[in-house]
Design the sequence.
């Protein structure tokens, strides 16, 4: 009887592990057995299977989302490239189609770069540098990167940056501002306003990027930092849902915090809080 009580749960676990090895992560075993140690083993097995099942669902969803986002610009490039083969189109149309192809190639490049960096950060393969740099100067340079888009959309800028040095990885830090500014520009209509401010309290650095864009729906606020999530289901604005996921990951690694306030048709405010050992109270 004792042997049967011991062997039966072991047989159950062996059978379940074989199914798991074949890719069936939905398998579970009975959590309660006569021996406490075997019950604990069974419970841990079930927890492991639940975790693996979640990872598998995420992986499948990630592959589907990535395939879709990668396919869209490729279809666009192919379509406009075929149009360029047409001898009947005007020089103006050729210029327009070539511009769209370049834009879609840049979109693919940015998506590949973001997903590669995200993968490195999540797998802890990225070694952050530690150097002192001017955070306010970095923000000014980030804004200048979008000078052409700002002028094209006649965006009014409100810049208020306190002097602030920061110890960290200047290159990876720039990804935060580039992605947040890119989003603000994308979703702010012509003639709108974008504000960038930086202030320091004791050792806390606070950066706010505010826009008068389309805003974010309440039901989307909890999901905007998920990979490939796009609140704009109409896809009226081009994006791939990776920028904010990358921002959140970088800020988490820095031990900082990002907060979002948004009202549809009014605008959004992204607040980044960082901690530095350099700054004294001002």
Sequence:
């Amino acid at each position: 009887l004792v042997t049967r009580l011991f062997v039966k749960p072991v047989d159950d676990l062996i059978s379940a592990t074989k199914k798991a090895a074949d890719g069936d992560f939905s398998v579970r075993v009975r959590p309660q057995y006569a021996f406490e140690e075997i019950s604990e083993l069974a419970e841990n097995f079930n927890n492991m299977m639940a975790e693996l099942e979640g990872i598998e669902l995420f992986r499948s969803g990630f592959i589907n989302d990535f395939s879709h986002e990668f396919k869209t610009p490729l279809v666009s490039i192919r379509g406009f490239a075929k149009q360029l083969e047409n001898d009947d189109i005007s020089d103006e149309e050729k210029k327009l189609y070539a511009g769209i192809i370049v834009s879609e190639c840049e979109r693919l490049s940015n998506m590949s770069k973001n997903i590669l960096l995200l993968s490195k950060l999540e797998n802890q393969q990225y070694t952050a540098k530690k150097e002192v740099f001017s955070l306010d100067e970095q923000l000014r340079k980030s804004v200048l990167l979008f000078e052409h888009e700002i002028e094209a959309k006649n965006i009014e800028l409100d810049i208020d940056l306190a002097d602030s040095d920061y110890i960290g990885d200047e290159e990876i830090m720039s990804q935060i501002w580039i992605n947040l500014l890119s989003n603000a520009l994308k979703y702010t209509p012509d003639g709108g306003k974008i504000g960038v401010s930086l202030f320091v309290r004791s050792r806390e650095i606070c950066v706010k990027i505010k826009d008068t864009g389309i805003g974010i729906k309440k039901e989307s606020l909890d999901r905007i930092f998920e990979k490939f999530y796009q609140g704009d289901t109409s896809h009226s604005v081009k994006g791939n849902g990776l920028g904010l996921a990358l921002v959140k990951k970088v800020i988490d690694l820095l031990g900082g915090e990002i907060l979002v306030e948004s009202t549809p048709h009014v605008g959004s405010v992204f607040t980044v809080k960082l901690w530095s050992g350099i700054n004294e109270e001002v």
